[in-house]
Structures are given as C-alpha cells and as structure tokens.
Specification:
Layout lengths: L1 H101 L28 H13 L3 H15 L5 H14 L3 H14 L6 H14 L3 H14 L4 H10 L2
Helix pairs in contact: 1-2, 2-3, 3-4, 4-5, 4-6, 5-6, 6-7, 7-8
C-alpha cells in the first residue's frame, strides 16, 4: 500500500509539472499570437496608407494627363493653323504680284471711285481684327498658361467670327482655360456652350468629356459619371470615349 501511495504521489507531482509546462507554453504561445496580431494590424495600416497614397498619386497623374492631353491637342491645332497661315501668305504674295503688274507705268494707282470729286478721301473702313491673329493669339496665350489673356482673345474671336469653322474650338478652349484654373462651374458653363451652340463642331466629344471631368471635380460625381456614360454611347469609337471608360472603370 505504501508503495502504491508513493507511486500515486509521484504521478500527481508529474501531472502538476506537466500542468505548469502547459501553462508556460500557453503563455508563450499567447505572446506569439499577440505579437503576430500586432504585426498583422501594422501591415494592414501600412497597406491602407499605401493604398491611399496610390489613389492620391493616381488622381494627380490623371489630372496632369488631362492637362497634357489638352496642351498636345492645342499644339497640334497650332501647327495646322501655322500651315494654313503660310498657305494664305503665299496666296497674298501672288495677289500682290498681280496687283503690281497692273499698276500703270507712271506709278499712279487708279482711282477706285472715279465719280468722287478730286481730292475727296475715301471713308475709313471699320477696323475688324484679323481672324487668324485673334485665334493664334488665343492659342499662344493658352499654350503659355496665360489663361485670362487666352479667354479674352477667344472671346474676341467669337465676337467677330462666331460662325466660322474654328468657333467651336475657340469656345472649347475658353472652357479649358477655366478648367486649368480649377474654376469648374465656369468651365462647365463654357463646355455647355460648345455643345449647344456648335452641334456640328469637331470639339463635341472633347467638350462632353471635360464637362464630365469638371462635374466630378465640382463634387457632382453622379452627374459627371452620367455625362461620361452618355459620351461613350454617342461616340463609342472616339479617343475621348476610351478616356471616359478609363474614368468609369478605374
């Protein structure tokens, strides 16, 4: 009996030691789990910060891309305008040569109004700015980032040449000037004028795209997204539609 009691006591001691070991291991395991949890939480915070930073960088990159895209379009149009202007200058030189050939040998020009009394002066013609000068001035100011001067030049162009082929372009770039200055309500108004007044102009897709962008920047996200979806439906094959899809499906 005494031997059995000794064995039982020894078994109890062994069991107590095992319990102590289990408690110790549990404490160590708990510390490991807590440490791992802290690491996971830290990683989550880091991932969230990285995500926020990437979103901010993406928004900034998109804004810079929009501005760069507008400037590239403006430069392309400036080149086209320069080519047209050179062609016009060539025609003017040809006309000047023709006029010089018709001047009499005595060098006196013919009186354009033979019925007028001698010495009578011709009435001065109304001074209307040249269309190319106004438009090219606006493009030059726009490319140089001189937004108020560009707006004034394009407005003057529309005042005198509101029915010309480039009127829709001038109206569009007024909106671009305000957009570049982050004056989004004014930009939206000008893009609307481009869309409504020049329904056959070549700036309709671009005006609708930038109107959608301006609405989103002006905290009118739902309206802006509707505008972009409308653009995709109206001009599905255009470059502007592709940019709208990228905005709708980031």
């Amino acid at each position: 009996m005494m031997q059995q009691l000794d064995q039982i006591q020894q078994s109890i001691k062994d069991l107590q030691n095992q319990i102590i070991d289990v408690k110790t291991q549990s404490a160590v395991l708990k510390d490991i789990v807590q440490h791992a949890t802290d690491n996971v939480n830290g990683m989550k915070d880091t991932v969230n910060e990285l995500r926020s930073t990437m979103q901010q960088n993406l928004a900034s990159t998109n804004s810079k891309f929009d501005s760069l895209n507008s400037q590239v379009q403006a430069l392309s149009e400036s080149l086209d305008e320069a080519k047209a202007r050179l062609a016009k200058l060539g025609d003017q030189m040809t006309q000047t040569q023709t006029i010089l050939q018709t001047i009499p040998a005595n060098g006196q020009p013919q009186n354009p109004n033979p019925n007028a009394p001698p010495g009578a002066a011709n009435p001065p013609a109304a001074s209307v700015p040249d269309a190319n000068t106004l438009y090219n001035s606006g493009m030059s100011y726009f490319n140089g980032g001189q937004w108020p001067l560009a707006v004034q030049a394009f407005q003057d162009y529309l005042k005198y040449y509101g029915d010309s082929d480039r009127a829709s372009n001038a109206q569009f770039y007024i909106g671009e000037c305000y957009y570049s200055q982050q004056k989004y309500p004014e930009a939206i108004d000008e893009y609307n004028k481009c869309i409504e007044r020049y329904p056959s102009g070549n700036k309709l897709p671009a005006a609708q795209l930038k109107k959608g962008y301006a609405l989103i920047e002006n905290s009118e996200k739902s309206a802006g997204l509707r505008e972009l979806r409308s653009l995709v439906q109206r001009y599905p094959s255009s470059h502007e539609a592709e940019l709208a899809r990228q905005k709708l499906n980031p």
